[in-house]
Amino acid sequence: MVMRLHVWDTPGHDRFDSLMWHHGTAQAAIVVYDITNQRTFEKAKMWVKTLQKSPRFRRRHIFIALAGNKADLVSRREVKYEDAQSYADDNNLDLFMEVSAQTGENVENLFLTALTELTDVKILHLSHNNLTELPTRANKLTNLTMLILNHNKLTQLPESVVELIHLICLYVDNNQLSSLPASMKRLKNLQELDLRNNKLKRICIEDISDLKRLTKLSVEGNPLTLEVIRSLLELRAKNPGRINIDVAGEH
């Protein structure tokens, strides 16, 4: 699936207001104001109101996030965090967050959270992002078939992943995983699972055995115990031709 992302940077000038009508096919909108400028907050409210009054918005819900920029300039703050949060709550906005375009604080989290609202996404590629956790709404991506999380800083695979029951491919290599969710066996459609180069010492063989459609499991580069390695080799031997298991230390 190809997703086209348009980010309009209109510095609050009235001549840009006509761009609002480009939201006809939008599934998400991030309305930004400057925490050091009260006028921009009032302008953001206008944009939110216009979005919510749109006939297109009434026909189908558009995810609306309110973002306060310049969070690195708190000493010059004119818009209180509490006031913006209260406005977002009172107007049923989907998300409120303060960010900093200067330092990058929360910017990635803002976009990832908005992205996970697009439930028709089938492939989500988040590699090389230094992620330490997944966006809280990731479990809403119910149609996801491929999740690519390699080369991040995940220490645990969130339980929300096992709710993505349509997953076919899950790539989590080159992270810092020390354990897997207890209910991995719920991923009944999983065919490929890449866990290379993590910190796994143990893997529940029963859970792997329950993944009847699994054809490829990669675990090399983990400090697995000899007991686990032996069990994985036995599992492969019992299922010749069905499952390919790359086991660390087998040579």
Automatic annotation (TrEMBL):
PROSITE patterns in alphabetical order: LRR, RAB
Keywords: Leucine-rich repeat, Nucleotide-binding, Repeat
Highest taxon of the lineage: Eukaryota
Tagged with keyword Hydrolase: no
Biological process annotations from GO: regulation of signal transduction
Pfam family, one: LRR_4
InterPro entries referenced in this protein's UniProt entry, alphabetically: Leu-rich_rpt, Leu-rich_rpt_4, Leu-rich_rpt_typical-subtyp, LRR_dom_sf, P-loop_NTPase, Small_GTPase
GO molecular function: GTP binding; GTPase activity
Similarity remark: Belongs to the small GTPase superfamily. Rab family.
Name of the protein: Ras- protein Rab-5B
Native species: Desmophyllum pertusum
Lineage of the organism: Eukaryota, Metazoa, Cnidaria, Anthozoa, Hexacorallia
